[in-house]
Amino acid sequence: MIVLVINAGSSSLKFQLYEMEDESVLAKGKVERIGMESAILTYEPEGKQDVREVSEILEHTTAIRKVLDMLVHPVHGVLESAQQIDAVGHRVVHGGESFSNSALVNEEVKQEIKRLFDLAPLHNPAHMLGIQAVEANMPNVPQAVVFDTAFHQTMPPVTYLYPIPMVLYKKHKIRRYGFHGTSHAYVSERAAAFLGRPLRELKLVTCHIGNGASCTAVMDGRSYDTSMGMTPLEGLMMGTRSGDIDPAIVPFTMGKEDLTLSEVNSMLNKHSGLLAISGIGSDMREIDEARQTGDRNAALAFDMYEYRLRKCIGAYAAAMNGLDAIVFTAGVGENSASLRAAVCRNLSFLGLELDEAANDRRGSDERAITTPGSRVQVLVIPTNEELVIARDTYRLILDRNDVN
Ligand SMILES: Nc1ncnc2c1ncn2[C@@H]1O[C@H](COP(=O)(O)OP(=O)(O)O)[C@@H](O)[C@H]1O
Ligand SMILES: CC(=O)OP(=O)(O)O
Ligand SMILES: [Mg+2]
Asked: Binding of substrate: at which residues (predicted)?
């Protein structure tokens, strides 16, 4: 069975094409700057030359058509015809309280994703465009949705409720949902396999540190608490997002700087985090380089980022009354040895002993970066959200075929 995985954002669309018999990736790529004159399509077919094309792509339907054209291209293609694609799986960031599992797309599911637009205004409308773009280009292909929030639906009320009037939860479902669940679930399972112990018996803190960043306390094999909240703005300091701040800063700043709600939202989501403190950018590579050449603002941004992450790990060790392993994953977590080292050096009170050489070693393999005697293990585990989406889609289609 051939499954196309799509992660549609407001101005981008990432994709991976899988042959599910052996879970091999046939091709992958992305379309960036959708809606702009010079959109960029990057396409990497397995065993063939990569392609980069700049053209006008004004909406998601055109983006999907371009992707399908590439997949069946006479020179760069990996398929004879787009009809070989058996199913499409989408990443959907917000599933609210309605979805604790992945689902096949039908009218009801689409209505529910639409109902959640308010809770994820940056993400869910884009996912819906992705679903509609597939419907327009491949009308008979079944689609599945895999939610970032699903893994966190096991959180108890003590961790998911906010101490604000209950009526707001009842009326508007204001609560912690958590995100990056597909990644936290995947790396937890891999961590248990790596440690050779049942996941149910482990207390883990999984750190998904990419563009967006979140930490999860995984206990009894489930998400017990996680740092992102009702939206992906809460919690850790990120590339351009503030993470936790005093909520009173919002009305105060709006008054003092005469900002609208949408301006203050944009300030916290797009103009804060590493970017705001360093004045350089949101990319950890740039920050780390600048810091090492003596840039003080970059050093401060790095230290704040590290401090807030370490505080979250410490809080979750207390929340679970114990800690067996910390897992680092996603762009920064997998690649930034200096961030991992800074976090670990400052957690020695937990009996954590960093193996500096293992931490400095580059590679995309799963590995421990602590000494064998370390009381808490620290692992680097590359995430693979696309594979989980492809697997869930595959399983849903097989189950459906069994029923029919
Ligand atoms: N070698 C590296 N060192 C430090 N940070 C890195 C490195 N490579 C990638 N990153 C960071 O990873 C981030 C992207 O993470 P990723 O998980 O791919 O994000 P997303 O999926 O949200 O786009 C980049 O912003 C960059 O800061
Ligand atoms: C939910 C979220 O923050 O996603 P991303 O890291 O892809 O921005
Ligand atoms: Mg990501």
From this structure: 91
**Residue 169: inside a domain:** no
Which residue puts its alpha carbon closest to atom 2 of ligand 2? Answer: 212
Give this prediction's pTM.
Answer: 0.94
Of all protein residues, the one whose alpha carbon is nearest to atom 22 of ligand 1 is 211
Q: Which domain CATH number covers 135? A: 3.30.420.40
- Is 122's pLDDT higher than 90? no
CB 88 within 8 A of CB 141: yes
* Residue (of 175, 179, 204) closest to 189 by Cα position: 204
Please tell me if the CB atom of residue 301 comes closer than 6 angstroms to any atom of ligand 1. no
Domain carrying residue 106: 2-147
Looking at residue 183, its pLDDT comes to 97
List the catalytic residue out of 22, 69, 86, 148: 148
In short, whether 212's Cβ falls inside 6 Å of ligand 1 is: yes
Between CA 105 and CA 99 the distance in angstroms is 12
Question: How many folded domains does the chain comprise?
Answer: 2
Q: How far is the CA of 317 from the centre of ligand 3 (A)?
A: 25
Specify whether 369 is located in the same domain as 221.
yes
Q: What does the DSSP 8-state code read for residue 163?
A: S
Answer whether residue 303 is part of any domain: yes
Helical (H) or strand (E) element with 314: helix 296-320
Per-residue pLDDT of 275-322, as tens digits, reads 999 999 999 999 999 999 999 999 999 999 999 999 999 999 999 999
